[in-house]
Write a structure and sequence with these properties.
Length: 177
């Protein structure tokens, strides 16, 4: 069997801060073709699909300036280096929605753009949510609402949910039935 691994000949830093490390990497394909590829490395992101006792899911309505669209999505955010991932995911839920899941279990981890971006998306299933006194962060969501799982799936079809993490989490939730 022929080895199809790409050969890395060098990497140059373009920019780096606490949210991203952008480099160019000189690579060679197995057939000898050489080129330079941009590579972005970002901290892991933890999201939570919060589900209540009626199998409704908690979603946030927010504007995403990069695509200039209003969309529904899961609460979540970057994981600090030393932070427990499940704790970070639960913290993000409370900060962004005012709800706190009492039970957290790992649902799925994936890479959304593995050809040029390294950013693990770690999704938890949050159960037994309780409403807290925490006011949702105004910088995160316009609205927070509960939806039946089937209705949330239909929102994907209508283009109201487009973020990869939310789409993956909702489809993964269908397998829990």
């Amino acid at each position: 069997m022929t080895d199809t691994r790409w050969t890395i000949h060098g990497e140059k830093l373009v920019d780096e801060n606490r949210h991203i490390r952008l480099t160019t990497v000189d690579v060679e394909l197995p057939d000898g073709v050489k080129f330079t590829q941009y590579v972005a490395k970002l901290p892991p992101a933890a999201m939570t699909l919060v589900m209540n006792e009626r199998s409704q899911v908690l979603l946030m309505w927010r504007h995403r300036f990069i695509v200039d669209r209003w969309v529904w999505e899961l609460p979540g955010g970057y994981v600090d280096h030393a932070e427990d991932i499940a704790a970070a995911a639960a913290r993000e839920v409370e900060e962004e929605t005012g709800w706190l899941p009492r039970g957290m279990e790992h649902l799925v981890t994936f890479q959304p753009a593995i050809g040029s971006v390294d950013q693990p998306q770690i999704i938890y299933l949050g159960r037994e949510p309780v409403h807290t006194d925490t006011a949702p962060d105004i910088n995160e969501a316009q609205r927070v609402a509960w939806f039946a799982l089937d209705d949330a799936i239909a929102m994907i079809d209508r283009g109201e949910i487009v973020g990869a993490s939310t789409v993956v989490a909702l489809y993964r939730a269908l397998t829990l039935r």
